[in-house]
From TrEMBL:
GO molecular function terms attached to this record: ribosome binding
Native source organism of the sequence: Halomonas beimenensis
Domain of life: Bacteria
GO cellular component, one term: plasma membrane
DUF883 domain residues: 14-60, 82-110
InterPro entries for this protein: DUF883_C, DUF883_N, YqjD/ElaB
Name the UniProt record assigns to this protein: Transmembrane protein
Keyword list, A-Z: Cell inner membrane, Cell membrane, Coiled coil, Membrane, Transmembrane, Transmembrane helix
Mode of membrane association: Single-pass membrane protein
Keyword Coiled coil: yes
Amino acid sequence: MADHAPHTRDTTRQLKEDLQHLSQTVEELVNATADDSRHNIKELRERAERRLNETRARLEARGERAYQEARDTVTHQADACDRYVHDHPWTSIGIGAAVGVVVGMLIGRR
């Protein structure tokens, strides 16, 4: 099984950087509105819009990758479980029965 911790740390770090850049640009835009220089506001607005679009695209790509990775992991785990049940049917029945008894006892306590 692959270790996803470094990938997760890199993704988290990149997300923080993206949000920090976007936040700085929005802050510059807000500060620029105090100055009535229309050219300055237009330039900062365009930069903020560009960074917003870039950040949105990166977040969507990361979300899609995370979804694919999660789906692949769940599929892999389901396949492994299916193989185990087919390879060890009596053990699987025993485990299922034991879980059923425990759940039945817990429900019966209420």
